[in-house]
Amino acid sequence: MTRLAGEFTSLYRLFLRTISASVLHHPQATRNLRRLWRPAFEAGARVTKELQQSPCDSSHEHHTWLKLWNERVNNTLALLYNSSQTRGLAHNLTRNLAWLVSSEQQRVRAYRLKAWDPKRPHALTNLTEKARKKQEEENKFKDFVARSWAPLNRAVELAEAKDDLTLGRIRVRGWKAKFLHDRGL
Fold first, then answer.
1. Could you report the per-residue pLDDT of 52-77, keeping only the tens digit for each?
2. CB-based contacts of 96: which residues, under 8 Å, 6+ apart?
3. In the 3-class helix/strand/coil scheme, how is the chain assigned residue by residue?
4. With contact defined as beta carbons under 8 Å apart, do 75 and 10 qualify?
5. More confident position, 76 or 179
6. What count of Cα atoms within 13 Å lies in the side-chain half-sphere of residue 56?
């Protein structure tokens, strides 16, 4: 297993310290922002390793992608530094991003699967009218939540393209999260 280049690990450590400073070293917000930007750095590490393993066979696409990624990370670092120094728009953005990650995790945890109770098999019971209405309301709410993320994702993509930076990706890990995501919960 090859180690990543020192420049990449230094950039990652600097990024982690800047994230912490941008939210005034608040532990929960720091953890949430680190989770938000981790997929971006995993992708950067993957491309960097591919370039290290085969530098002569490396494609022009990888170099171009890595150059664009470095530029975006530098711009994001500037945003985070600005957030740590001022209490303006950049600080509000990082605070709200941390809150968004936290609320998404709470939303996923709210729909955790209940433990199976052999005395009450739900599949065999007939739903009463009240239970049926409650289930319809829950389904409407789930549809609303699923539809509400699309415009927010579009706004984030537009902001990233305009200022040439990355605002991270929300990714909830684990088999329960995948199970719930596959079912639209």
1. 887 766 678 888 999 999 999 999 99
2. none
3. CCCCCHHHHHHHHHHHHHHHHHCCCCHHHHHHHHHHHHHHHHHHHHHHHHHHHCCCCCCHHHHHHHHHHHHHHHHHHHHHHHHHHCCCHHHHHHHHHHHHHHHHHHHHHHCCCCCCCCCCCCCCCCCCHHHHHHHHHHHHHHHHHHHHHHHHHHHHHHHHHHHCCCCCCCCCCCHHHHHHHHCCC
4. no
5. 76
6. 0
Using one digit for the tens of pLDDT, what is the confidence trace for 26-51?
999 999 999 999 999 999 999 988 88
Residue with tokens 């992708």: 43
Distance, CA of 8 to CA of 100 (rounded, Å): 27
Residue spans of the domains in the chain: they are 6-110+154-171
Distance of alpha carbon 25 from its chain centroid, rounded? 20
Alpha-carbon distance of 148 to 142, in angstroms, equals: 10
Quick one: CA dihedral 65, 169, 46, 182, positive or negative?
negative
3-state secondary structure 141-163: HHHHHHHHHHHHHHHHHHHHHHH
Task: Give the separation between CA 51 and CA 70, rounded to whole angstroms.
Answer: 14
The token pair at 185 is 């919960």
| Structural contact between residues 80 and 94, judged by C-beta atoms closer than 8 angstroms | yes
3-state secondary structure 106-119: HHHHHCCCCCCCCC
